[in-house]
Amino acid sequence: MRAKAKRKALMGHIQEMNETDLDRYAAQIEQMLHRLSEDNELGRDGQAVVSLDQQSVGRLSRMDALQNQAMAKAQQQLRDQQKQRLLAALRRIDEGEFGYCVDCGSEIAAKRLVLDPAVFKCISCANG
1, 47, 50, 69: which one has the fewest Cβ atoms less than 10 Å from its Cβ? Predict the structure, then answer.
């Protein structure tokens, strides 16, 4: 799964985070990725092409269907963005950069990582 040598290098940098913590974050991220994959399967039907046959569907029903399709596509876009953030977090774990702000290099608060392990900025840089 994850290379222990890379993790040992990371452990030397983040004083409070150990290999068990990194394993827990990696497992949490992988669970989130799995849920996103399941949500993608459920959302496929909503993104299907809307039939414009005036005999089978009334005008308002078509408008509703088009609106639902647009919302399903927007949801898919959000899931795709979240997937990219989660994959980037796994890469940061592998590269020994997990838990550090990508802007200033300071440690990201553990409570922040627990809430969202894909976070990549400390609170100061995220607000600035």
Answer: 1
